[in-house]
Amino acid sequence: MNSVCGRIRNLDPRTKLVLLILANLMLFFHVAVSTQAVMVVLFLLPLVAAGRWRMALKFAVVYAVLTALGFLDPEFLGMPWLHVVSALAVGANMMLPCFITGAYAFSTTSPSAFICAMRRIHMPEAVVIPCVVVIRFFPTVAQDYRQIRAAMALRGIASGGWGMLRHPAQSLEYILIPLLMNATNVAQDLSVAALTKGLGRAGAHTSRTRIHMTPIDWLTIVVCTVPLALDIAGVI
């Protein structure tokens, strides 16, 4: 019973890759708004099942706001400048499914599980190593950001949630520049660590991480693929 609950809470990494591909196909084929809404709901369900309900709620609110902005009629409201806002909202809304599936994959997949999944699908090592570095890169940069924000709050510089907006010049100087300078070192260190662990070694590799596709994974893939396939076929 605990194993089944665990599988529901965390899908196989290969299923997450399929969800990422479906999200990018939505952007490529420019699906209808109704299909997009259904797909967003389906993409949010794994986040909720994995216990990331706050993240799912934030994405849902952002999607609802962007959708509402996209339906604005600037001519009826007498504000032509809203055309720019509406166009930006539509563009951001089209990319949001990619952000949702990417956030789910990054926040619920360990590097070892991802490596095991990539090797199960016979992905070359030249692709595996950069992907592993990317997976470790963003959490490391996020940790550096939190440390910088804590140091700024301790010194009373742009403290609070709106501090960055009230003081954009200070935010650029104290946050963005240190992050950019540190990003190169982080990427280099992660690459060296990956190679030191033997990820680039030729030959067969073993792994203590066990992954396998379950009926829940196959059901998730089918349920998420059907609305997109129907939209591409012109049924919806």
From TrEMBL:
Report which residue ranges the record marks as coiled coil.
Answer: none
Q: Does the keyword Cell membrane apply?
A: yes
Protein location: Membrane
Q: Is Transmembrane one of the keywords UniProt gives this record?
A: yes
Which InterPro entries did the record assign? Answer: ABC/ECF_trnsptr_transmembrane (IPR003339), ECF_transporter_component (IPR051611)
Q: Which membrane topology term applies here? A: Multi-pass membrane protein
Q: Which UniProt keywords apply?
A: Cell membrane, Membrane, Transmembrane, Transmembrane helix
Tell me the domain of life: Bacteria
List the GO cellular component terms: plasma membrane
One Pfam family assigned to this protein is: CbiQ
Just give the chief location class.
membrane
For this protein, the parts annotated as crossing the membrane are 17-49, 55-72, 84-106, 126-145
Q: What is the protein's name according to its record? A: Cobalt ABC transporter permease
Organism, as annotated: Bifidobacterium oedipodis
